[in-house]
Specification:
two-stranded antiparallel ribbon, four-stranded mixed sheet, about 170 residues, 4 helices, alpha+beta
């Protein structure tokens, strides 16, 4: 089995200029692509999972509802659909969804080029237990307060919440 994950290497305009392994991209801080998504319920709360302790990166940290890299030759939307199915056992065709942001590494100190999606549902997903150890519904403001109080979170979580939901933090 080949465990090497190949990603598109992109330039400052998010144009593919080659390919690189995930490990090399992270070690050398090379520009690659990723997707994230938030499940949002009818009360405006975000479904925020906690990563398992066995994760290589950010073990035990709060996370976006869905997140992952865009693989070599894959579109952002295809990666969003794949990651949502893998992590949440959720077919995006079964819920209302939309793209809510397209960001660069220069936006609020994000790590990679990123598209962010929102899925509307009041049902907590049957998440993959290899990815997440639990989850809860939190308002954007409550989530940011938890992170500010020291609850460990992925480095892009707070900036993304501010970028995507900043006008709803009251």
């Amino acid at each position: 089995m080949n465990d090497v994950e190949w990603l598109d290497l992109v330039n400052e305009r998010d144009e593919v200029i080659g390919s690189v392994t995930r490990d090399e991209a992270w070690a050398r801080r090379l520009p690659v692509r990723g997707v994230n998504a938030f499940l949002v319920n009818s009360h405006g709360e975000l479904w925020i999972p906690r990563r398992t302790l066995t994760k290589r990166v950010f073990p035990g940290c709060l996370d976006m509802s869905v997140g992952g890299h865009v693989e070599r030759g894959e579109s952002y939307e295809a990666a969003f659909r794949r990651e949502t199915q893998e992590e949440l056992n959720l077919d995006v065709n079964a819920v209302a969804w939309r793209e809510i942001g397209a960001f660069t590494p220069q936006d609020a100190g994000l790590n990679i080029f990123m598209r962010v999606y929102e899925l509307r549902t009041d049902a907590a997903p049957a998440y993959n237990p290899h990815d997440f150890s639990g989850a809860e519904w939190l308002t954007p403001a409550a989530l940011l307060a938890r992170i500010a109080a020291g609850d460990p979170a992925k480095s892009d979580l707070a900036p993304l919440v501010r970028l995507c939901y900043g006008d709803r933090l009251i």
